[in-house]
Design brief:
By secondary structure, the protein is α/β, with parallel strands linked by helices. The protein contains ten helices and 13 strands. α6 packs parallel to α8, α6 crosses α10 and α8 crosses α10.
């Protein structure tokens, strides 16, 4: 079976992807510097055909050595937060842009078959046109969004310049087990679940009518594997479910699933946050045979179960 390298393997998406690849019989190598990844996410992977390296992806010599003999690279590592990028644009740009260039160059020089890079729906910005389709002009409104646009453009350029098969996946608000609920920059679903499980009020930035195409982790894993194993190259794909849920509706749904009655608090909107995200997934359906298997409510139930058990 193939050998895969996952950057950011101790992160939420990276560790779930590693699980899925190991279950398919892959040999998996993973790298992480634990800037945002968590050691506990690696525990389920130990003892399988899994090899871990504590490495920063900007370390060119280390990445070249680790990538040698790899068939597929899944580049998930990043500083992942829009608000954090607004506070600290230098760290986000360095990690996400220089890191991506280093990963792609290692893949190019070691004969990797395909590289799949993680991009973001944030590259579309706050355009009023919905749903978002890949042919729309990107309008990144934060250093994070700009770094993700660079990530995908560089990957596709490597496909043109060096005949390296690449694909970029624009994630639409991926959520699920192993996502960190703590910290100032935690994603909304795990953070709200953790807060409401403790009986506290979640804080919504803005009026709560902003909407997101919340996408359960299993769907993102499916898209990554299809992109690597398929015949596409030099393409960008939306990875979502093709729907929208407002943040107010998210709180209502969580109250129902948690059997609680907690009203949110409201605060000022955060700079760089887009108002709406909604994916057109027809391109991924056609070229990747992508078919979201887990919907919003089912995904929330599985995520809540994970945090209950934790």
């Amino acid at each position: 079976m193939p050998t895969a390298l996952i950057t950011g393997v101790a992160g939420f998406i990276g560790s779930n992807l590693a699980d899925a690849l190991l279950n398919r019989g892959y040999d998996v190598r993973g790298v992480d510097n634990f800037e945002t990844g968590r050691q506990q996410n690696l525990s389920p992977l130990v003892g399988n055909n899994f090899e871990f390296h504590e490495v920063d992806i900007r370390d060119a010599a280390a990445m070249a050595e680790i990538t040698d003999g790899v068939d597929y690279v899944f580049h998930q590592a990043a500083v992942p937060s829009v608000p954090r990028s607004v506070e600290d644009p230098v760290t986000t740009t360095d990690a996400n842009c220089t890191g991506t260039a280093t990963v792609l160059n290692a893949a190019r020089n070691t004969g990797v078959d395909a590289v799949v890079v993680a991009s973001s729906s944030s590259v579309y910005g706050s355009t009023e046109t919905l749903p978002k389709v890949e042919t729309m002009e990107p309008r990144p409104e934060s250093p994070y969004a700009l770094s993700k646009y660079y990530t995908e453009k560089l990957a596709l350029q490597f496909s043109e310049l060096y005949e390296l098969d690449t694909a970029a996946l624009r994630y639409f608000n991926i959520f699920g087990p192993r996502q960190d609920p703590n910290g100032e920059y935690a994603a909304v679903i795990p953070k709200f679940i953790d807060i409401m499980l403790n009986g506290d009020q979640p804080v919504i930035y803005g009026d709560g009518e902003q909407s997101r195409d919340f996408t359960y982790i299993d769907n993102a894993v499916q898209a990554n594997i299809s992109a690597a194993e398929g015949d596409v190259t030099g393409e960008t794909f939306n990875v979502g479910c093709g729907g929208r849920v407002t943040i107010n509706e998210l709180v209502d749904e969580l109250n129902q699933l948690l059997n609680t009655d907690i009203d949110p608090q409201y605060d000022d909107p955060r700079p760089g946050d887009v108002m709406h995200s909604h994916a057109n997934i027809s391109k991924a359906e056609k070229l990747l045979d992508y078919n979201p298997m887990s919907g919003f409510t089912d995904g929330l139930e599985q995520t809540i179960e994970y945090y209950h058990e934790g």
